[in-house]
Amino acid sequence: MLAEVLIFVPSIARFRVDYLQLRLEKAQIASLALLATDGMITPELETELLANAGVFNVVLRRDEIRQLVLSSEIPQPVAATYDLRMSGPYVLIRDAMAVLADPQERIIRVIGNPVQEAGLLIEITLKQSPLRREMLDYGLRILFLSALISIITAAMLFFAVRRLLVVPIRRVVRHMQAYAEAPEDARFVITPTARVVELRGAEEALQLMQTELTSALRQKERLAQLGGAVAKISHDLRNILTTAQLFADRIETSADPAVARAVPKLVASISRAVNLCESTLAFGKAEEHPPRLARIAMRPMLEDVAEGEGLSATSDPACLVDVAPGLMIRADAEQVQRVLANLVRNARQAIDATGRGGTIELSAGEDERDWWIRVGDTGPGLPPKAREHLFMAFQGSVRKGGSGLGLAISAELVRGHGGRLELVRSDEDGTEFMIRLPKGGGLDLPADPA
């Protein structure tokens, strides 16, 4: 539309100027015919000359003298005067638009320069309606030609876009739909063929994603099958080990010194195997249930966790609880207790491995955004490999023979609350974990005022 305006408006203004200039030239020719005969022409010939020029009268200014050369009766007063000698583009466009917008029959005066320097100026009087009809006819021709060019251009653009964009995009959509129905079938992985650089880049990215996703799905299926087998083995092995643990407990009271020395190691080994089976079964569940949020008093919970692990302020290692008596948080009590039990158990095992005493510190508090719970110990710190894969199952074990499932499950439970489990520090002076639980209630719950 902008192109149409930029073409139509100057063109119609130019046409008006050419039309009036042509009338001036014809009027000048008619006046020269009169001057050549020294004014000796009949009224009929004068009327014919004016009709041929399409004007009512002609005025020439020659040698500073203004002379009415040809004249006839004007049916009505002159409505407007236009001087083509001093009109700029804006004035010409404005006057042309005014003519198109004015359907009234008017008489106008036009002033211009004579051709071939045959005087100082020439002035004519004529009807505006023929000019308007010619301008409308010319404008319609321009619009028709522009519309034809626009239609041809639009058709070319349509077919170009269809061939270069629409058809390749439909092909991509078909591949995506077919791949969605059978993502394991490698035959539905797209092969890039587009000639447009951006679209070909999209096809290549889709091909890479489909290839990786197909491989991931195959690996996931194998892992699922392997996980199911491991879960069954762990379940059966746990039952066998539990029976073995009962027999080990019975022979612990044996009077044989050799048996008495071997039994504690046997019981410890069986206990670790049972714990591994139970952790594997717990981790193999499809998902943990969503947190059931409730108000929890922190100090009693931390004391229960320490007592459940056989720890107190006077035990070895010692467990110190530093929490304000009235501190309350909003969380799932069972899940938070499992997380704390895992962290405290790991801390105790780290201290026990050193063969010397130590201290486990449990504290909790709050700030403007979060509740926080700190679990620290004076153990030897985590090895570099354990810190690198700390919260990854079967890779982040902190002790020899461990599976790393405890920290992986703990991190998952904390994330379920919208919080995070962080390793604050781990060096020769000990290890410190921090649990942060947000006070915000999420999208479906109001923010907690505490």
From TrEMBL:
Histidine kinase domain ranges (all copies): 232-441
Record GO terms (molecular function): ATP binding; phosphorelay sensor kinase activity
Keywords carried by this UniProt record: ATP-binding, Coiled coil, Kinase, Membrane, Nucleotide-binding, Phosphoprotein, Transferase, Transmembrane, Transmembrane helix, Two-component regulatory system
EC number, as in UniProt: 2.7.13.3
Entry-linked SMART domains: HATPase_c (SM00387), HisKA (SM00388)
First-level EC class: transferase
Matches recorded under InterPro entries: HATPase_C_sf, HATPase_dom, His_kinase_dom, HisK_dim/P_dom, HisK_dim/P_sf, Sig_transdc_His_kin-like_C
Keyword Endoplasmic reticulum applies: no
Pfam families tied to this protein: HATPase_c, HisKA
Entry's transmembrane regions: 142-161
Lineage: superkingdom: Bacteria
Catalytic activity of the protein: ATP + protein L-histidine = ADP + protein N-phospho-L-histidine
Coiled-coil ranges per UniProt: 199-226
Keyword set includes Transferase: yes
Record protein name field: histidine kinase
